[in-house]
Each structure stands twice: as structure tokens, then as C-alpha cells.
Design a protein that fits this description.
Layout: E1 4-9, E2 14-21, E3 24-32, H1 44-66, E4 75-81, H2 85-102, E5 106-110, H3 111-117, E6 135-140, E7 145-152, E8 155-161, H4 167-177, H5 184-192, H6 215-231, H7 235-238, H8 240-266, E9 270-274, H9 281-294, E10 297-299, H10 311-321
The structure holds 5'-O-[(R)-(carboxyoxy)(hydroxy)phosphoryl]adenosine and zinc ion (ZN).
């Protein structure tokens, strides 16, 4: 009998539902919340309200596109954390309600593990290659920057992480300093394509071991721009692309240098990247280069699986389902959740 999992993701500002059958993706719907743009960041109350408005139509559409009905679902997987509590609550409550009405089990999913497991999503239109265990994963998102040894689908070991801001946060906060819209990461990426990456130099942290730090870079970027604006009010406008390219180069090299170190420390040469920042073209190019140089086997996800999506929740739910890892109906969302 095939196993069909409905995945629900609502940890931040994307409401998403996806259907996975035996590891194959049947549908993956994402409703973005544009309302946050005018505030320059995610407003938790508004996110929660938008999830409530979006969740039923998004699930309905995901089932339609998958060509199934509720009676075909074997279990509903939901993001339990980490994330915004008010946002998570909408997905968790929806999953529980569906579980009770359709008499199917629920499966809680750790959002961070799910980002990594996108590497195992199968697609009928594309037979990809999947990483063998163990492999290293650089997980870079808006809330997290971690280096992880993935020993098995659900067995992961954290070997390094940011001690302050995440890489995505560094992109977003610096973009905000430049007056660019939220989320700034993709905007910086686009601007950087026309800029010189060596136009300006920004500070890189001196961090021992495999940990990261990005708050110093953000402060350095802020003071640098403030100082230039004193003598040249048009500085940002006239140097947008160069600023973006130089900033991106700094963030990408901080990430890549640590990844190279992690490969050397662990001796693991199978390397993956995941999370929203893995959509960054500069990072993808630099990783390909590092992989060629170091003779690594590299796994870079398709763009649609980099930022938050429910396909990653459904695939994680699938691996938990086949291990009979179900969740009690009194499970509550958690804002902080280690990998
Ligand atoms: O994984 P994700 O969708 O949500 C979290 O779990 O945080 O990641 C969102 C982050 C944001 O900080 C966004 O600016 C960043 O990913 N991001 C990018 C790009 N696309 C998304 N950063 C740099 N370049 C991109 N192309
Ligand atoms: Zn995420």
C-alpha cells in the first residue's frame, strides 16, 4: 500500500501544504504573505492572522493538485517548531483538527531537519541523485546558520552554529540599512549580479572552531554607510550594486570558509546546503568551486525547495511514518527546537 502524507508548514510567514506519496512529491502549494513588506519584517500577529485565512484554501488546492481527497491521506505532518508561536499554532491546530475528523495520525516535524531532508524529495519528472549518509549540511536560513552532520534521515548532529545573527538575517538587516524591501536576501542577490564584489571590504569575524558570527558585519556595514552618507547623500543609490556584491561576497566567504574547515575536521566530503539562503547565486557558485577544488560530492537543492515549503515537512513526515514515529494529540508548538 502506498503511503500518502499531507505536510503543513506555517512557522513564519509562508502558509504551505504539500502531498508526498512514497517519497514522491505530488503537490506543493505556498501562499506568501506580502502584508509584511511595508513593515520591513515579519509582524507575528499579522502572520498568524494571514495563516488562518490561507490554510484551508492552500490545503484544498494541494489536495486537488495531487489528485487526492482527504480519505487518501495516511497521516498529516506539521511543523512543530522552531518558529513564531502564533504562526505555528495555526498549522498545529489545523493538523489536529484534520486528524480527529479523518481519523488519521499526526506527525510532528522539526523545521530544521525538514530543510535538510529536501535532498530526499523524489519527483516523477526528474530522477535525481540523493546524498548517502553520513553527509555534511550547511543549513542557512533567516533564523538559523548551522553546520550539521547528517547520519541518517532523522539522526543529525550539530557541529557549529551562529552565536548571534543568522546569515539570512545579515542579508535582510543590511538590505534594510540600504532601504531595500523585505526580505532583502533575494534583492541583494539580484543587485549583486551587476556589481563588483571587491568594490568594498567589510569585516569578517575571527571565530574559533566551527561557529559563525554575523552581528559584527552588520554593525560594520551600518557604520560604513553612515559615514559615507555624511559626505555623499547619494552614496547608497549610486553604489547599490557594488554594495550588494561586496556584502554578498563577505557573507558567502564566511559561510564557505567554515564549510571547508568542517570538511577538513570531519573528513566527510559529501556536502549539502539547505535553507532560504541556499537560493543565493553567489553561495551556489562558490560552493561548486569549493567542491571542485576539494573533490567533494555537492548537493544543492532546487530553488523551490530552498525557502520555506511544506514539501520538506511532508517528506520528513514520510520518513517518520515508516518508522511509526507518531505524535500525541496534546503536542504543542515550540518556538525553540534543536535539530
Ligand atoms: O528558510 P527560509 O525561507 O525561512 C527560515 O526558516 O528562516 O529563509 C528565509 C531567508 C531570508 O532571510 C531571505 O532573505 C533569505 O532566506 N533568502 C536569500 C535568498 N533567498 C532567500 N538570501 C540570499 N539570497 C537569496 N537568493
Ligand atoms: Zn525555514
Amino acid at each position: 500500500m502506498p503511503v500518502t502524507i499531507l505536510g503543513i508548514e506555517s512557522s513564519c510567514d509562508d502558509t504551505s501544504a504539500a502531498v508526498v506519496r512514497d517519497g514522491y512529491l505530488l503537490s506543493n502549494l505556498i501562499a506568501n504573505q506580502n502584508i509584511h513588506r511595508k513593515y520591513g519584517g515579519v509582524v507575528p500577529e499579522l502572520a498568524s492572522r494571514a495563516h488562518q485565512a490561507n490554510i484551508v484554501p492552500v490545503v484544498d488546492q494541494a489536495l486537488r493538485e495531487a489528485g487526492i481527497t482527504v480519505t487518501d491521506i495516511d497521516a498529516v505532518a506539521f511543523t512543530r517548531g522552531p518558529g513564531l508561536l502564533g504562526s505555528l499554532l495555526v498549522g498545529v491546530s489545523f493538523a489536529k483538527g484534520l486528524s480527529l475528523s479523518a481519523s488519521i495520525p499526526v506527525i510532528e516535524v522539526n523545521h530544521l531537519q525538514a530543510h535538510i531532508l529536501v535532498h530526499f524529495i523524489k519527483d516523477i519528472s526528474r530522477e535525481g541523485s540523493y546524498p548517502e549518509f553520513p553527509f555534511l549540511c550547511l543549513l542557512v536560513s533567516g533564523g538559523h546558520t548551522q553546520l550539521v552532520i547528517v547520519r541518517d534521515y532523522l539522526k543529525m548532529e550539530l557541529i557549529g552554529q551562529t552565536i548571534d545573527d543568522a546569515a539570512g538575517e545579515a542579508f535582510d538587516k543590511c538590505a534594510k540599512i540600504m532601504g531595500l524591501p523585505y526580505p532583502g536576501g533575494p534583492v541583494i542577490d539580484k543587485l549583486a549580479k551587476d556589481g563588483r564584489s571587491n568594490a568594498f571590504r567589510f569585516s569578517k569575524p575571527v571565530m574559533q572552531g566551527l561557529d559563525f558570527s554575523f552581528s559584527g558585519l552588520k554593525t560594520n556595514f551600518l557604520y560604513f554607510i553612515r559615514e559615507r552618507l555624511l559626505t555623499d547623500p547619494g552614496f547608497i543609490e549610486n553604489n547599490k550594486s557594488d554594495l550588494a556584491a561586496s556584502l554578498q561576497e563577505t557573507i558567502v566567504s564566511i559561510l564557505t570558509e567554515k564549510l571547508v574547515k568542517a570538511v577538513s575536521v570531519t573528513g566527510i566530503k559529501r556536502v549539502a546546503v539547505a535553507g532560504g539562503v541556499s537560493a543565493n547565486s553567489g553561495l551556489r557558485a562558490k560552493l561548486e568551486q569549493a567542491a571542485n577544488l576539494g573533490n567533494w560530492e555537492i548537493f544543492i537543492p532546487e530553488f523551490r525547495f530552498t525557502t520555506d515549503n511544506a514539501a520538506m515537512i511532508a517528506i520528513t513526515g514520510f520518513y517518520k511514518y515508516i518508522r511509526s514515529e507518531f505524535t500525541a494529540l496534546d503536542a504543542v508548538p515550540v518556538a525553540r527546537y534543536g535539530i
